[in-house]
Amino acid sequence: MKLIYCTCNVSVLDALVKRIDELGIGSYQIIEQVLAKNSKGDSRLNTAVWPGYNSSIVMQIPNHSKATAVMEAIREFNKSAFNDNELVTAALLPMEDFCCD
After folding, report:
1. CB contact at 8 A, 74 and 5
2. Is 101 contained in some domain?
3. Is residue 99 one of the residues assigned to a domain?
4. 56 and which of 31, 47, 73, 93 could share a cystine (Cβ 3.0–4.6 Å)?
5. Which domain holds residue 8?
6. Distance separating alpha carbons of residues 78 and 60, to the nearest angstrom
7. Do 19 and 76 meet the contact criterion of CB atoms below 8 Å apart?
8. Cα 13 to chain center, whole Å?
């Protein structure tokens, strides 16, 4: 199993979730307000100096090939970003166990 953790500006959350659904990912969680400082784009710390926030999506994916397809879709998604603030940051991690029953 694999776990993908990604963060994105709230402005692209709906479009990203739509793409994840199109890929058939059936298990994910959305954390709506995440404070973030990324290597590209402006910090989103929900302060007067750094207004706004990001959102996170955590996905549990049963097989490696589907997980790599999601990562590739995120890379493609990033190619259409209007600016660095709309880039999605994603990490693919191994997951040893997952309980949902």
Report:
1. no
2. no
3. no
4. 31
5. 2-94
6. 21
7. no
8. 8
Q: What are the tens digits of pLDDT across the range 28-72?
A: 999 999 988 888 887 888 888 888 899 999 999 989 999 999 999
Q: 73: which residues sit within 8 A by CB, 6+ positions away?
A: 19, 23
pLDDT value at 100 more than 80: no
CATH number at residue 21: 3.30.70.120
Residue 24 in any domain: the answer is yes
CA separation, residue 65 to residues 8, 32, 70, 72, 89 (Å): 23, 27, 9, 11, 19
Bridge partners of 43? none
> 40, 80, 35: which is closest to 54 by C-alpha?
35
Structure tokens at 42: 């402006």
How many domains are there within the chain? 1
